[in-house]
Amino acid sequence: MGGLAEHNCEVLLENTLKVSCMKIGVEEEPEIQAAVRVLLGGLGEDVNREGYKQNVNDIVEGALFPEAGLEDDKVGEAGGTGGIVIVRDLNLYSSCESCLLPFQVECHVGYVPSRQRVVGLSKLSRVADVFAKRLQDPQRMADEICLALQCSIEPTGVAVILECLHIHFPTLESTIVDPSQEGWKKVVVSSGSGVFENKEAGNDMWTEFFRLLKMKRLVADRIQKSISTGHWCPSQAPSISAIPSDMVSAVATILRTLGEDQLRKEVIGTPARFLNWLINFQTRDFKMKLDGFASKIWEPRKSDGDMKGNMKIHSELNLPLRSQCEHHLLPFYGVVHVGYFSAVGMTPIGKTILQSVVHFYGSKLQVQERLTKQIAETMAPLLGGDIIVVAEASHTCMLSRGVEKFGSSTVTIAVLGRFSTDPKARALFLESLPFTEL
Amino acid sequence: MGGLAEHNCEVLLENTLKVSCMKIGVEEEPEIQAAVRVLLGGLGEDVNREGYKQNVNDIVEGALFPEAGLEDDKVGEAGGTGGIVIVRDLNLYSSCESCLLPFQVECHVGYVPSRQRVVGLSKLSRVADVFAKRLQDPQRMADEICLALQCSIEPTGVAVILECLHIHFPTLESTIVDPSQEGWKKVVVSSGSGVFENKEAGNDMWTEFFRLLKMKRLVADRIQKSISTGHWCPSQAPSISAIPSDMVSAVATILRTLGEDQLRKEVIGTPARFLNWLINFQTRDFKMKLDGFASKIWEPRKSDGDMKGNMKIHSELNLPLRSQCEHHLLPFYGVVHVGYFSAVGMTPIGKTILQSVVHFYGSKLQVQERLTKQIAETMAPLLGGDIIVVAEASHTCMLSRGVEKFGSSTVTIAVLGRFSTDPKARALFLESLPFTEL
């Protein structure tokens, strides 16, 4: 927590920002305008509910309970003094200050009680949530949670570890070239105060904190390394000419409405980065590219229809999927499984081609139901007409916006031709599906 | 969904109950009164926020999006028609109508779109939440979610599966006798409408739903069996004389305030069952029982102090813990690990005795910090003064009350004597701790 001075406490605890509801007065092309309105609505829900308006002292005050420590004749640490108290595996989500996308946070908080009092456990979670529900950077969030708990509880020390996962949203070009590109960027950050101030390897408090977290995979070394990597957001700075300036102004207005200082150096490029990402899903001449690609490489296999007796089901499983939900402008990600009939002895269609189609339909504003149908309809004529497509995906709109259903996933299915009329064929394919961790 | 007739739809969708805030005008002994006030506060938060006051039509209306189905020249199911859409692994919690304790729910919802429209995915979660945030029985909850979705979306069919976990809160007597008594009661229930109406083995729609849930362990047979077990709540009916009638009236008032029909046959015994469970934590003569028990069986091992050179750490891991949070009157559960020095060659103290002490301090209103300290302080004189106690627990108050942090757990530690002054001894014990699934 090195850089944060003590006088920050009061600001942090009382930071009831004046949130004003300003209207966007900028003219954009209607489609983009509608999209930004949806986004503003989504973010606006947060403004009214949590985050910037919350006051940490209000949360903690009234939840500090007297709890006797050890009696004088005993040597040790327990109860209201000295024994560490940890709440681990708190699922949070936050929004990246650099690109506005939500990111997932696994949060672990520990503190060492003093002054013969303990804090209600749920308050550790609520305070962490206050700082998560803002535009954030992982290290800053860890520092803010740590400082706020230190100032409000006044314990012997506070330790915070955040494991953050940011979706790595590839550009269209990079996915076509390299479909296997990793989907996530992970950083682990920590912050400590009091007895946790010093994070060097020799600090027994940190060593015990790690042991009690059962994070054997996580060593102090790696945390230090993560901290030093600096900027973590995988979004790319756009070429300035690519983004119309009135759109940038519109997104800047959103940030101002949220109570953000738009001139803060971490945030100043955010509107452009967000729009760069958004515009990737508006590329209209890409359809033509795919058509050209298809006519050159794919040979429709009409002859297959005459050989039904010798057909077997070929499965192409776990094709990576990334897309963007058109209702909330938020990413969803997962896998697609494709099944089709293939004549015995024939070479199945290449995985690369199927992956390209998945990326093509993923790379626009979508709903998962439509995406699944489009993949099936595009591939069907090239595969003899009989096809089954199953998509499994996690939707970040199910994490944020007050729903907060961590770990949930959505499955959709499209069946054409024989897969629709023959339950046995469908069953045979569905039984071949792997267990998926999303 | 057999028993629910179509005319229930309107009632279910429009059920904006009149919730009045009535004051409890009953005189009880102050301690119990305070406890009931805390409970009312906790439940009251829910009344003002979600559950009884929510209207399913408000949630779904505006989230039905037109989505084209397959074109006329194609045979199959996809998009806005016929392809099943599933949202799986939604974590919910609900409150048992029989004993008022919260129970966990893993919810899986599927529907088959029709009329060329789909519903926003998060709405499936929100509708399920409306019916979870009431006093519930698993089968009734599944039927209500199913009926509400069928009536509001009007799809070809709806399928709902709920995996419910109810804490099995043992009585003091049963835990002392049998500390290994299983902590959870699990039931799986399902409900279907439209193409899912018939749950027999031959229904392809159910078969596919299961396959897409990847619930290979879950067969239709077992669901049918769970449904037929009837009453699932493990709370016990008390002997009438044991519960003061004014306390029963106080809890009945809480139910009325929530908008519940107190005369409904499932709820009529709830106040007595809840109080029976609460009173288990108020048994005051139990301390004496433990003291008598201890003086007979345990021999303080003072001689150990002279043999420090030949001592080794003995660990007793994973002692089951059940207790009740005094801030919210809600259960917490987990395991306790105890470490102490034992002279080489000496028989370690029996696991049964340690387990009895854990149960003794668990069987009252507690905070985890104090519980951990009390176990350490009670056992220390009998174990030569050097002891380390680590408690790991999940708190149901972290699930309910708006926090809803599923999967989080709390770790507390107490160290006495040598474990407090010797970091190496502490480290040796902490390294021996197993990975725990809570």
Automatic annotation (TrEMBL), chains A, B:
Q: Which GO terms describe its cellular component?
A: cytoplasm
State the Gene3D superfamilies in the record.
Answer: 1.10.286.10, 3.30.1130.10
One Gene Ontology term of the biological-process aspect is: tetrahydrobiopterin biosynthetic process
Where would one find the signal peptide in this protein? none
Q: Which InterPro entries match?
A: GTP-CH-I_C/QueF, GTP-CH-I_N, GTP_CycHdrlase_I, GTP_CycHdrlase_I_dom
Q: What is its EC number?
A: 3.5.4.16
| Pathway linked to the protein | Cofactor biosynthesis; 7,8-dihydroneopterin triphosphate biosynthesis; 7,8-dihydroneopterin triphosphate from GTP: step 1/1
GO molecular function ontology, one term from the record:
GTP binding
Record's keyword annotation contains Chloroplast: no
Describe the location of the GTP cyclohydrolase I domain by residue ranges: 32-167, 249-432
Key word Hydrolase present: yes
Q: Which UniProt keywords apply?
A: Hydrolase
Name of the top EC class for this enzyme:
hydrolase
**Database matches in SUPFAM superfamilies:** Tetrahydrobiopterin biosynthesis enzymes-like
Family stated for the protein in its record: Belongs to the GTP cyclohydrolase I family.
| PANTHER family per UniProt | GTP CYCLOHYDROLASE 1 (PTHR11109:SF7), GTP CYCLOHYDROLASE I (PTHR11109)
What's this protein's name? GTP cyclohydrolase 1
Tell me what organism the protein belongs to.
Chenopodium quinoa
